[in-house]
Amino acid sequence: MHIQESGEMYLESIFVLSQKDTPVRSVDVAEYLNYSKPSVSRAVGLLKSGGYVQVDKDGFLTLTESGLEIAHKIYERHTLISQVLEKLGVSPETAAADACKIEHAISDESFEAIKAYADKL
Predict the structure, then answer these.
(1) Domain 71-120 belongs to what topology?
(2) Long-range contacts for 25-31 (Cβ within 8 Å, ≥24 apart)?
(3) Is residue 7 over pLDDT 90?
(4) Which of 20, 42, 77, 88 has a CA-to-CA distance to 28 between 20 and 30 Å?
(5) Is the pLDDT of residue 79 over 90?
(6) Is residue 121 over pLDDT 80?
(7) Average pLDDT for residues 73-87, to the nearest whole number?
(8) Buried b (16+ CB within 10 A) or exposed e, 45-82
(9) Which residues contact 81 (CB under 8 A, 6 or more apart)?
(10) Boundaries of CATH 1.10.10.10 in the chain?
(11) Domain limits, CATH 1.10.60.10, in the chain
């Protein structure tokens, strides 16, 4: 199943929030992304039905193996692209904003080339 950009954003957000060693709820994702609670609730429902997220009886979100795979991929892209842009002289704020746009559109081939180039730096 192909996941859209918005779904990738939600998965990445859940991943980032879960790195803080605190349980993640939909309200945390809403605050992190500055989205409405109903929008996040709907998205989480779609991600749950797609098999990317599990929601326990207390409303805590956990990424499934496939959800974690996508979230990690997007997070890696975001992090590396931000770093490369900053090394090119782009401000951290602009680099992060641009990386957020690029991370969803870039092909695997192009990202791997950027990654290989960054490893040489």
Answers:
(1) Diphtheria Toxin Repressor; domain 2 (1.10.60)
(2) 25/59, 25/60, 25/61, 26/59, 26/61, 29/61
(3) yes
(4) 77
(5) yes
(6) no
(7) 95
(8) eebeeeebbeeeeeeebebbeebbebbebbbebbebbb
(9) 95, 98, 99, 102, 103, 106, 114
(10) 5-69
(11) 71-120
Q: 54 - beta bridge partners?
A: 62
Regarding beta strands 60-63 and 53-55, do their DSSP bridges make them parallel or antiparallel, or are they unpaired? antiparallel
119 burial (CB, 10 Å; 0-12 / 13-18 / 19+) is exposed
The CA distance from 48 to 15, in Å, is 15
What are the structure tokens assigned to 76, written together?
A: 């890696």
The pLDDT of residue 1 is above 60:
no
- 26-36: pLDDT as tens digits: 999 999 999 99
CATH topology (fold) of 5-69: Arc Repressor Mutant, subunit A (1.10.10)
Residue 60 corresponds to which tokens in the numbers above?
Answer: 């805590």
Interatomic CA distance for residues 48 and 54, integer angstroms:
6
User: Could you give the C-alpha distances from 56 to 23, 62, 75, 84, in angstroms and in order?
Assistant: 11, 8, 24, 38
The pair of three-digit structure tokens given for residue 36, joined into one six-digit string: 């409405």
